[in-house]
Amino acid sequence: MTVLLSEAELGDLLATFTTSAFRFELRERYNSAVGAEPFRKWQAGESDDYAWHRSWMEKISRDVASGKTWQRVRIVSVPPSDYTRYGMKVAQLSVRAGEDIRYLRRDVAARLGLDPYDAWLLDGSRLIWLHFDDADDTFAGAELVTDREVVSRHLAWRDLALKHAQSLDEFAAHLR
Q1: Partners of 73 in beta bridges
Q2: What pLDDT is stored for residue 175 in this prediction?
Q3: What is the pTM for the complete model shown?
């Protein structure tokens, strides 16, 4: 039986990369204690000062200034879910901080043969598979995957996804 890492342990692992952090995001929704109220506000049309997101943006800015790369590809359905549309709004802040966030339509990903885990790839050598509870979309834990074949396959999928994914602005423009 695999022992899953906690959210705090995942955070500790994310602090250990030296050159690059890449994330595959696959879910239509992520349900977290931190994000629940901001998502509710967005759905209600209420304003948000995004103070809850500030430490992430500052981390990205510091890391990018020191030469590190943060990237992610969000594999999404079209039309996008409400959560994806909300995520695009928040992504604008992360992109301004230096994170490269791209979008890949789910049908295109399938056509390309992409079948990744929802995971982080650190320094192109470590894969952290994120597990979620399908009943409520909450984080269930993270698993450090050491199988070289699995890591290599995800690296190839990362390269293919980055080649075919659209920037946030390009993806948003195609939705209008």
Answers
A1: 24, 102
A2: 86
A3: 0.95
